[in-house]
Amino acid sequence: MKIKVDQNLPESLVEELSRFGHDVDSVREEGLTGRSDDEVWKGAQTANRFFVTQDLDFSDPDRFSPGSHHGILLVRLPYAGRSALVQRIQAAFETEGAESWNGCFVVLSDHKIRVLRAKGT
Length: 121
Description:
six-stranded mixed beta sheet, alpha/beta
């Protein structure tokens, strides 16, 4: 799976997800730090990457409807530190069949994962 990690997540997540065999890069590595959400989104989509973020600007499943992009994982952990963020995301990729999330809108909370798929899939 090709993944792009947003700048609002720990950079160590790139290495952790790479250990599962994913092709992972980050907004920082690509030089998109501080750029607009539209530019970051375009960068992820142009590179055919599943986008992992905490940014609520990407939280609208109507705007980012499943099947219209390469996928989004929106992480919603209200009081998590950097280590807890990495651990929760890592656990989700390890146990939840993340390879099937391509094109999906996925919301990850501390106790739940909600996967919205394109209609008909």
